Amino acid sequence: MTFNQDNWLLRVRNLTKIYGEPNERTLAQTGPEFGSNICPETESIVACADISFDLYPGEVLGIVGESGSGKSTVVKMLYFDFEKTFGSAWLKPYNNGLIDILQESNQRKRYIRNNLMGMVYQNPRDGLNFGFSSGGNIAEKLIMAGQMNVGSIRARAADLLTKTEVPVQRMDHRPGTFSGGMQQRVQISKAIANNPPLLFLDEVTTGLDVSVQAKVLDLIRELQTTLGIAMIVVSHDLSVIRMLTDRVMVMKNGRIVESGLTDQILQDPQHEYSQLLVSSLL
Amino acid sequence: MIENTKYTNKYNFAFIDEATKKEIRRKLLKAVAIPGHQVPYSSPEMPISRGWGTGGLHITLAVIGREDVFKIIDQGSDASVNACNLREFVNRMTGCKTTFDTTEATLIQTRHRITEEELTEKQIIVFQVPLPEPLRMVERYEYKTLQMHAEADYAKMYVSLYESYVRHGAIMEGAGYPVMVNGRYVMSPSPIPRWDIPNLNQAKTLFLFGAGREKRLYAVPPYTDVEPLEFEDVNFEIEDFSNSGCYKTGYKKAFLDEIYADDGGRKFVISDSNFLDKKMERQETRQYSNKYIDQLQAYDL
Known about the structure:
Low-confidence stretches of chain A: none
Order of helices and strands of chain A: EEEHEHEHHHHEHEHEEHH
Structural class of chain B: alpha/beta
Order of helices and strands of chain B: HEHEHEEEHHEEEEEEEH
Largest sheet of chain A: 6 strands, mixed
CATH topology of chain A: Rossmann fold
CATH class of the domain at 18-135 and 163-228 in chain B: Alpha Beta
Largest sheet of chain B: 7 strands, mixed
Shape of chain B: globular
CATH architecture of chain A: 3-Layer(aba) Sandwich
Oligomer: heterodimer
Radius of gyration of chain B: 20 Å
Number of helices of chain B: 6
Mean pLDDT of chain A: 91
Distance between the termini of chain B: 78 Å
Number of helices of chain A: 10
């Protein structure tokens, strides 16, 4: 991991998402200093604004903030679940980072999504198709990336499920019959099926009990060290952030209020809100 | 005195008024121009309910001319209720000659089968389609299936085939096996058996599909590639009749219907009634030829 200016993996500039119809004063009248992300004039909602950062290969970046701070919106826009309002993003493995991926056609976006990215949602129902078996869910991602051999699809799915400690005998069962932790592990298998260089984790441990949480976090950490995937981890839970991430951005009311090395921010938070977050940690 | 001739005939030729026929023909032209693409159309009222063959009937009535010889089959049979009633309707509304003979017909309407005898460039076959959308079983929202077709995003379709293989050891889509038309659109060939699917490929005939209830038309023009979806290692297969044979003729190289007897036993009979008649009378027939049925034996040795 060398951090120099040029070897970034993902570069994001001015990423903004506004719901409703903003006017030219909307951005100036919202944000942490106003304590609100609703524009007083137009009542449009600024989910997030002016998000700029670089992510380096193999790095784990955390995004932390209270609910409604816009952290999930950021990754969902980067994964093309939501349309951006403004902003650009470049991904190095895609055309050597020369093309703004957010401007691409739906077909190209789907290619990027299926070949170069993975996403693990908080709710397994968002990331998995409960009508398909867990093997079928992994197959979906592989087929989307152009694999058309059932034998090798099944071998790869079995391999991934072993890696994520889901019993391979349950490969042909539907995820609806699994426990929450297992569903989450199937979702992780699906997300990393095509060895993407970039993985988004959106509140992956929220809603799991503590021992399962620890196992899932262990798994993510292990995958990160063995496969060297760069990750963006979204969480409101500072202990998850501390355990997983190298660098962290603190968000409030749709803006980044502070960013820096995780240890530094947890030890010595500068912004008022980060201080509040850290001091609220049990 | 001015004579009003407008109402001297109770119905227009072929029942539907000319403006509506023109609309259907225009949509058919579009469908032929984009093989496998579903084109919305008016689906006008008919004296039968939508979903009972109205789609096929609309196309038939829009393209039929006074010289046409009309044949209609329902699951291969000229004699089933649906076929008989629609035949009589078309006959009364057009005065066209009707026939059972596949080779004599110029326009054939069908429900769930293609004739066993090969059709020629001079013939048109019209399918009655209940569910035109092949992606419906994997995606319930229309706006999403439209998008998936537009972007040729058919991964989910393949996943459903994968699931079928995993669950049953083979791809079990019995009827309406999804096909790729002209390398672009995935199409539901209406619920024809797998047996008929290879006959769509590079065929000499124009295939027209009409779904009256869903208000969609689509087409496969002559000499178009139609390939069943399959994996590299799990392939499309047609129905296997190697252990059975038509009980009337002993013939095995045709799609067979299974008949249950009162005692619980079962026997098989050729599904295409005209083909069965010809076989029984030992007439000359020219069947479709494709890589699946070419290697089958016609009779037990």
